[in-house]
Design goal:
Blueprint lengths: L1 H39 L1 H7 L2 H7 L6 H24 L5 H13 L3 H10 L4 H20 L7 H5 L8
Helix pairs in contact: 1-4, 4-5, 5-7
């Protein structure tokens, strides 16, 4: 039994390292491409098309890029973009909460949806229900006051200037 436990732990460690490698292989080039697109002005043109969504969801225009990336490729791979934008100070605390609420409900819209459609789920109902619920939850959240606890401040979360 002890040998099986060690083998299982080893297999888990190897699977975790390989998963981390796969994430790095995808996230690192994605981050480089995004930085190049920001420097060349391409990103401004792309995100400008989604500024109406930012206004509708009551988030800043800086929240559009992490929202679109997370919506398209999900949390695992989009987390690098979300964390990068948060660390660069581009996102307010409210933006960070809104992105997480929206993407908790409606992330990886293409991959998840295609997997479920492949086993017989309705494409329309999957996409529509996730989008509507995510928008409603994000709008409802936007009406709530955001406070920063002392515990959050200890971990480096900064309150919004406004």
């Amino acid at each position: 039994m002890g040998a099986n436990l060690v083998k299982a732990a080893w297999d888990g460690l190897i699977a975790g390292v390989l998963g981390l490698r796969d994430i790095v292989i995808i996230v690192l080039p994605l981050m480089v491409l995004i930085e190049l697109a920001k420097d060349s002005g391409i990103m401004e043109r792309i995100t400008a098309r989604f500024n109406g969504v930012a206004g509708f969801l009551k988030v800043s225009e800086e929240a559009v890029l992490p929202l679109v990336v997370g919506l398209g490729i999900g949390f695992s791979y989009g987390s690098g973009v979300i964390i990068g934008a948060a660390k660069e100070g581009e996102l307010t605390l409210k933006d960070r909460y809104a992105i997480n609420i929206f993407l908790s409900i409606c992330h990886s819209i293409f991959e998840d949806t295609l997997l479920l459609v492949a086993v017989g789920a309705s494409l329309f109902w999957l996409v529509a229900s996730r989008l509507v619920l995510a928008v409603l939850a994000t709008l409802l959240f936007g009406r709530l006051p955001i406070t920063t606890s002392s515990r959050m401040l200890e971990t480096g979360v900064t309150p919004d200037a406004s």
